[in-house]
Amino acid sequence: MCGRLNLSSDPADLADELRLDVVSYDFTPRYNVPPGADVPIVVERLNEAGELTRRLETAHWGLVPSWAKDPKIGFKAFNARSETVLEKPMFRQAIRRRRAALPIPGYYEWEVTEDGKQPWMMSAAGQGPLFMAGVFEFWKQPDEQWLVSTSILTMASAGHLREVHDRMPVFLSREHIDEWTDPALATAEVPQLLSATLDQVDPASVTKHRVGRAVGNVRNDSPQLAEPVA
Question: pLDDT tens digits for 213-223?
Fold first, then answer.
């Protein structure tokens, strides 16, 4: 499960590395981001000239499928289980046609202990953010504007991350981002892509440390939330 994010660094700083053609994500540092908030996604879409462009966009965290009657459905869909994402009506169109990479500096997870829930901060073991595999959708709002929304794929935890929680995001290596976001991939090849994506996940690329319990309150939002505690 992934239910709280740290968005403390600007993903636009990766414009050259990610070969971004368009940056439309409006960065504000946030340290305790819950579902329902705006998050950055890297996607590949056609521009008005019909050219494929790589874009850093803003998306609502909690997928709202095109057939939804009410956008509140997204509050139940901020994560998508990789085991069922190909079959679930909520996600099956998005996984086949609209895949995204989310550049996330870190996320929080809670370990159940005898003394209550202990929060942990997970971040990249190397430089830069974590990249999480996601899906995205478009939903036409009553004012005719389009709402872009996203979900983060999850899988069974592995390695040292299993010590904290039994689920973790599906992490993308930088080399795998191109394959995951490719919109030209044939629908029949998506199951194979998903399987290959799960196989390349390396939990050793993620580091973790305990943080204070103040992060449990979404009203708290400061850099101190991510600082390690004993």
Answer: 999 999 999 99
What is the C-alpha to C-alpha distance for residues 93 and 217, in angstroms, rounded to an integer? 34
Partners of 162 in the β-ladder: none
| Domains of the chain with CATH codes | 5-226 (3.90.1680.10)
Q: How far apart are CA 49 and CA 150, in angstroms?
A: 25
pTM of the predicted model as reported, rounded to 2 decimal places: 0.95
The per-residue pLDDT for range 15-72, each reduced to its tens digit, is 999 999 999 999 999 999 999 999 999 999 888 787 889 999 999 999 999 999 999 9
Helix (H) or strand (E) run with residue 175 in it: helix 174-181
pLDDT at 139: 94
Distances in Å between the Cα of 230 and the Cα atoms of 117, 118, 119, 210 are 15, 11, 12, 7
Backbone angles phi, psi at 116, to 5 degrees: 110, -170
Instruction: Assess contact for 73 and 101: CB atoms under 8 A.
Output: no
CB atoms within 10 A of CB 73: 17
Q: Residue 40: what are its φ and ψ, rounded to 5°?
A: -85, 140
The backbone torsions φ and ψ at residue 13, rounded to the nearest 5 degrees and listed phi first, read -65, -15
Residue 130 near residue 171 (C-beta atoms within 8 A):
yes
